[in-house]
Design goal:
single chain; alpha/beta
């Protein structure tokens, strides 16, 4: 069910990422995309507000390193615009995963590169809707508009036509670094690094990807989930967390 998929995307990846960090002029976007700063504080994730402040504090050329399963559509759009508006050169580097909203954040850079073993994923927007037939039609119309704008972004970066990108989004398409390069979604790939034993070091996503329909086997990993947090939480805090989750599920992702 879609509800379970959305819960898996948000709840099972909550507090897994490192938020937003920077070292010098390298910004690490190693988290899912939150819809607001308050949501990021409660559930983890990177908000557009937090990212924009971090980016604005820098000067000169910047590298944004990405490992994200995606998240809030409009939060992702705002982060992408902050990257485009940055006065210096921005390299977006996909270290592990740039899925869903993170895919169009990645292509906002002046140049885009991907590490060996990394993936990009594109799909049509999801949400939940409650109401009568008119409400549901309005939600469907909104989702179609969102999909159209996302397809336009892939077209602007890689060429082709929006209809073909919409077909790939409908199929929930996963791209290796080489496939993304071949399509023009990225501009280059990073060389393999070899450790002292001579074995290739592969960048592996660290996310629970059960929300998605068809992640490739190489992108999956065994995940151990913690006990339900609500068992240790104050009832008021638990109620607030549930309320925020409902708000979260009703937004496009």
């Amino acid at each position: 069910m879609l509800r379970n998929r959305l819960l898996n995307l948000y709840a099972r990846n909550a507090k897994k990422g490192s938020g937003i960090l920077n070292e010098g002029n390298i910004v690490y976007l190693y988290d899912y995309i939150a819809g607001s700063e308050s949501e990021a504080e409660w559930w983890g994730g990177v908000s557009a507000e937090g990212f924009s402040k971090q980016l604005a504090s820098l000067s000169g050329d910047v590298t944004v390193r990405i490992d994200s399963p995606g998240g809030d559509v409009f939060g992702g759009r705002a982060i992408a615009q902050a990257i485009r508006d940055y006065p210096g050169n921005v390299i977006c580097q996909i270290d592990g995963l740039a899925a869903s909203a993170a895919s169009y954040i990645a292509i906002a850079g002046d140049s885009v590169v991907a590490a060996p073993g990394s993936f990009m994923m594109i799909h049509r927007a999801w949400t939940l809707s409650i109401g009568n037939c008119s409400d549901l039609r309005s939600t469907a119309d909104l989702l179609e508009k969102i999909d159209g704008t996302i397809a336009d972004s892939y077209t602007a970066k890689a060429g082709g036509n929006a209809t073909d990108w919409l077909d790939l989004m409908t199929a929930e398409t996963w791209f290796t670094a080489a496939e993304a390069l071949g399509l023009g979604l990225i501009d280059g790939t990073l060389p393999e690094k070899v450790d002292k034993s001579g074995e290739n070091i592969a960048m592996r996503p660290a996310w629970d990807l059960s929300a998605f329909s068809a992640p490739p086997e190489e992108a999956l990993r065994e995940t151990v989930f913690p006990e339900d947090q609500e068992q240790q939480e104050n009832p008021e805090i638990a109620a607030r967390r549930r309320s925020l989750m409902v708000d979260l599920l009703l937004r496009p992702a």
